């Protein structure tokens, strides 16, 4: 390490011993983060994409009914709940519209015409019409006069709906005869369909940003009773925010801690990897994870709900086998034939990579290794066929000890300047839609500490700006990437119909989001 680098860290350690903007963050952790900026984030090494028969499981039609029954039995016992990351702001959804609003017009006649012809198809149209009317504007007249900028102002700014500054969870997504629904409401309905227990209770936890917590809670409180009555359930809802202790330090382009305009060290949210702490704090057993914007109207929910139950059933089936083997391994007496059965299960079903010298280990060492590998959280990840959507995918990666493992990998985690790595990335056949089921208790019913199974080094460094000044930001290991790096992992193919994200506002005009 360079002398100047050491001196910077020493000076920094003195500075952060004083109160900071993120007092909950340990000074040693901050120093560790600064060191990462200096040495850089280490890219993952891809070996090959996971494919059907090589890391991705296909569920046969003959298995589906039995798997759905397994899910429903576990749900009935109260083992299941759902976790919805809902802190994402809608600003990216409206980037194109916001630019046009600032410029006072759309960038082409065709784009302006498309906007005018399709505006009434959005679920928020009625709300927009009302708020404009209250301010003395007739929306149809504005459209006829080509006053698109005025309409955009009422959609995007606090003068009207304020959609550019709201979280996606609070946006109206779908049109219904009786009441147009927000993304948050659609998740309440989904939960009622697949995590209902014997007391007709459905547990669901949302994680929102602190700034949006109050309006989120207000809408949830207002709408919950409506869906409880309609679906005859009790919705046990929890709202949490990202913990301040998961914020990460920002540095300047010379990797020195960056100070804001008030002279305090700048900390930023650590990305969706910070939600590992929220997940870890849940009192759960089997937890479904799904992004806030991946929802469909009721007419398309059957496929989504069926495959939620199929994934849940696959997880329960794997847990039953793993727990039984762990009970057997915990006993002192275990014959050679049974040990070989466990090894075969680990290799064939869990696709675990054994150490090169594993066969030469004494049987007690083999048993200890198997116990350590089996007794950890498990994640079932739905995977859809790749149709060009941006985002991560399932790959076999090389670990530091020379073994290989199944991981969900984002493009920014690999070295795209390497021809070999770029070719492997481009040859991927499947995509990660963020459709997970997590088993977070061990065979004794005890909660795992999920922090023990995260790869803390699997971070990414990105370039941002603070009031026009370039800075570097550190993102924690992604929740379903490095955050679950050392979980047992099973990838299962699910239909493309179960993946209906809303990344731009125009996505709401797709047939999967329309009547």
How would you characterize this protein structure?
- There is one protein chain.
- The strands form four sheets. Strands 2, 3, 4, 7, 8, 11, 12, 15, 16 and 19 form a ten-stranded mixed beta sheet that branches. Strands 10-9-18-17 form a four-stranded antiparallel beta sheet, covered by helices on one side. Strands 1-13-14 form a three-stranded antiparallel beta sheet.
- The N and C termini lie far apart (61 Å).
- It has helices spanning 3-15, 27-39, 61-76, 95-103, 109-118, 125-134, 139-144, 148-156, 183-194, 213-231, 275-280, 301-329, 336-348, 363-374, 419-426, and strands spanning 46-49, 51-52, 55-57, 80-85, 172-174, 181-182, 201-208, 234-241, 248-251, 267-268, 286-290, 378-385, 393-398, 404-409, 430-431, 435-439, 460-466, 469-475, 488-493.
- The chain is α/β, with parallel strands linked by helices.
- Residues 1-21 have low confidence and may be disordered.
- It has a domain at 95-165.
- Strand 5 (172-174) and strand 6 form a beta hairpin.
- Helix content is 36%, strand content 18%.
- Helix 4 (95-103) crosses helix 8 and helix 12 (301-329) runs antiparallel to helix 14 (363-374).
Structure described in brief:
The chain has about 525 residues and is α/β, with parallel strands linked by helices. It has helices spanning about 5-15, 25-40, 60-75, 95-105, 110-120, 125-135, 140-145, 150-155, 185-195, 215-230, 275-280, 300-330, 335-350, 365-375, 420-425; strands at about 45-50, 50, 55, 80-85, 170-175, 180, 200-210, 235-240, 250, 265-270, 285-290, 380-385, 395-400, 405-410, 430, 435-440, 460-465, 470-475, 490-495. The strands form four sheets. Strands 2, 3, 4, 7, 8, 11, 12, 15, 16 and 19 form a ten-stranded mixed beta sheet that branches. It has a four-stranded antiparallel beta sheet with strand order 10-9-18-17, with helices on one face.
